[in-house]
Structures are given as structure tokens and as C-alpha cells.
Amino acid sequence: MISRLIDLLPRRIGQNILRSLKLPTRRSATYRLAVLFCIGLVLTLVFDRHAVAASESGNHLSSVINQFKLPKSSIIQLLETVGLFVGGIIFCIVLDRWFSNRSGQSSNIPLAEQARQLKQLKMGYPEGMTNLEVLRTQGLLENRLRPFGLNVTWTSFLSASSLIEALSNGTIDFCGGGGTASIFSQAADHVFVRVAKEKYTAPKGQAILVPEDSPIQTLADLKGKKIAFDKGSSAHYVLVRSLEKVGLEFSDIEPVYLTQPEALPRFRRGEVDAWVIWVPYTATQARSAYPGRSIADLESIFGDKASVEVPTYYYAIPELVRDYPDLLKVILEEVNEAGTWAKRQELEAVQRMTAHHEIDPSILETLQKHSGERAIIPIDDQSLNALQHQANIFRDLNLIPERVNVKDGTYSLQTKQNWTY
Fold it and tell me: TM spans, by residue (predicted)?
């Protein structure tokens, strides 16, 4: 019955009503009452077969009112209308309580039962994302969930935008990637929830490369040049802010929208003047065989604000948040464990290099500080405010069709849970 009512509404309104009833949110009671009121009104209009007749007899009603006398038939019709409206509201309240009870019951189901119900956990990852690479290769999640009989599968994707799209269509259940992609996905009405973020972004984790023999020396030299980057990715935002830093507009360059595997051969052939890249293509050992030199990186563009300005988020399907909260907690705990392990390995490698005077001691000091801290943290207002700033910039540039609210509880889960054992 609800589905039929939703079909009577404009498509987008219907989707939003269903989402308000079904997805885990932090919406206020006022909002929920407003939704129930609207649905109750629709129920009244649909089921009150006397509504049209009543509207057609408006002149008669006016004369009755003027005479301060209501015929018995009009009183009956009025009572029927009020009764149907109240009944609609009661029905919606019962429906809302049913969904709430279902959500509450699922949160009380033990981890073992949640694992048996889910049966298979589908993980997605972009190549080069350290925490998820470690989680996958070390088998941390499989070891944790094997006693419950839950099968874990892994699928790699080229970009965060393709990962979130896969979440929306049910191909995967959990993934990680840049925050910028989630803005474009939210604007496209994809269904996903931001559930956590990495605490630190590598200061050299993204860079703008130019060919070794290029006359381009500074960001200002990018004016009028062809620049390759993945549209809707964090590289997109890095480029916009880089141009802004030297007083250039996005319209001052010629964008060439390419995924990183597509961009590499064209960069080598000199078909683009610059390339905005991210891990693993930055100037590290993993990229030592790649051409080009860096004219800017996250550190030079954002300073110590890189982790806030260019965050990495973790995403889940709404059902995982709503129906399998203990499983989600396990996933986040193991992601954090993988990040801690990776930081220890990086610290040990840098310590060996420092001993041979191959690296700046200040880098070692920074890594030592970070090695004792969490790898991922809950989503907070600071991170969402920065992401909202990104979203506003893309809307002002007409790169997304409308303004989005990243604090919408449908898309962002703010929790005090620290995912500790």
C-alpha cells in the first residue's frame, strides 16, 4: 500500500519519503512527524472518496455556514474525512514504530547471528589505499570473522567514485576512498553512508606532475595548459585549490578527464602538459619508474591542513549500518589495526633510512608521533565542515547540479564509538 502511495508522488519525493522511513538517520523528531503528517494527508486524499463530492458542493456548504446550520449528511461526511485522516496518521505511526523496532532488534542481535544473516561480506578497495591493502593482504578481517562462518570477498576499483557507485547498486558492502567522490555521488543520489575517516593524509600523497623537460616550473605556469585528472576525484579538488592559490580560475586551464591508468600513457607521450595524481603514483619508491617531476603536493598546497582538506573516508551500505552494527564495528576495528600495522612498518623503514642519512629527521619525528595514534577516527563536525566547503566550491563551479548537505544523516554517520576492543 505504501509503495502505491509513493508511486502517486513525484519520483524524487517518493524516494526521499522511503529513505526517511528505511535508512539509519539522526533526523529530529520534528522532521519525522512532518513526514508522517504528509503521508497521512496523502492517505486521506486517496481513501476519502467523498472529498471530490464535498469540494463540488462548496456553494451549498457556504450557504449552510451562513445559516449556522449543518445538515446531518454534511456532519457525517466531515466526521468520515477527519476519521480517515486520523486513521492515516495512526497507520503511519504504527509503520514508523515497526521500522524503529526492527532497527532496534537488529542492533541487539549478537555478532554471530549478524554474521550468519549476512553470510557474505563484499569489500571494495582502490589500488594503493594502504589501510585496505594491508587489511586484505594480511587477512585480518578473514581471521576475525572466520569463526562465525562469514565469507569475505575483495574487489578492486579504479576510483572512489566507482566504489561508491558499486555500493549504491549493491555490488559491494564496504569500501574506502577520497571524500571528494562522495560529494559527486551524493549529488547523483547514490545510496551510501560515510562511517569513518582516516586521521592523517600523507603530505606527499598527491602531487601535480609535469614532464622532466617541461618549461612549467610553478603553479602559475599551468595557465592555458592541458591538465589530466580523474573527474570527481580528490585530484579534481586539489587542482581547483592549486589554481586558486595562484589566482587562476578553473576556466584558465584545459581539463582532460582521464582515469589514472588512462592518463599515464598519454602523459608519457606528451599529450597532456600536467597530471594530477594520487597514491601510488606519487614520488615514492612505488612510482620511481614513472616519468615527470612534481611542481606541487598536498603539503605545499594545504600545509598542515592536508588531512582536513583532502580526507579519506570509509563508506558502507545503509543496511550494514542499520542491520549489522556489530559487524560494522569489527570492520572498523580491523581497518584501524591495519593502519596501525602500516604506520609501524613505515616508521621502521624511515628509521633505517635516517640511520644512513637518507631522509630528513623531521619526517621521522612526524612518523613517530603518528605511530602511537589511531589510524581512523569517527566522523566529526570539523571534517564534515571541510567536506561541505568542497561541495560548495563544486556547486559554485557548476560541476554538481545542486547544493548538497554532507551532514545529512542519511549520508554521514556521526558517532562517539572508537572501535576499540
Answer: 29-47, 75-95
d(CA 221, CA 232): 23
Q: Residues 143-161: pLDDT tens digits?
A: 999 999 999 999 999 889 9
**In which residue are the cell numbers 592518463 written?**
263
Give the separation between CA 100 and CA 92, rounded to whole angstroms.
Answer: 12
* β-bridge pairing 293-297 and 206-210: antiparallel
Cβ–Cβ < 8 Å for 187, 401:
yes
Residue owning grid cell 594545504: 302
Q: How far apart are CA 20 and CA 18, in angstroms?
A: 5
Write the CB contacts of 409 (distance below 8 Å, at least 6 apart in sequence): 24, 25, 26, 27
Q: What mean pLDDT do residues 369-375 have? A: 65
Model confidence at 22: pLDDT above 50: no
d(CA 196, CA 379): 5
Mean pLDDT of 322-348: 89
Q: Is the pLDDT of residue 1 over 80?
A: no
Average pLDDT over residues 255-260: 93
**CA distance linking residue 144 with residue 159, whole number of Å:** 27
DSSP state of 285: G
Please state, in angstroms and rounded to a whole number, the distance separating the CA atoms of residues 330 and 23. Answer: 21
**Residue 99 has what pLDDT?**
53
**What is the tens place of the pLDDT at every residue in 35-90?**
455 555 555 544 444 444 444 444 554 554 455 455 666 677 767 676 777 777 77
Residues sharing a CB contact under 8 Å with residue 50, sequence separation 6 or more, in sequence order:
77, 80, 81
CB 135 within 8 A of CB 75: no
Buried b (16+ CB within 10 A) or exposed e, 262-275: ebbeebeeeebbbb
CA dihedral 7, 9, 11, 15 (to 10 degrees): -80
Copy the grid coordinates of residue 372.
602511537
Q: Which residue has the cell 549520508?
A: 411
Please return the burial class of 358, using the count of CB atoms within 10 Å of its CB with bins 0-12, 13-18 and 19+: exposed
Best CA proximity match to 390, nearest among 378, 403, 377: 403
Query: Is residue 163 within 8 Å of 150, Cβ to Cβ?
Result: no
The pTM of this model reads 0.72
The per-residue DSSP string of 6-40 comes to: HHHS-HHHHHHHHHHHHS-----HHHHHHHHHHHH
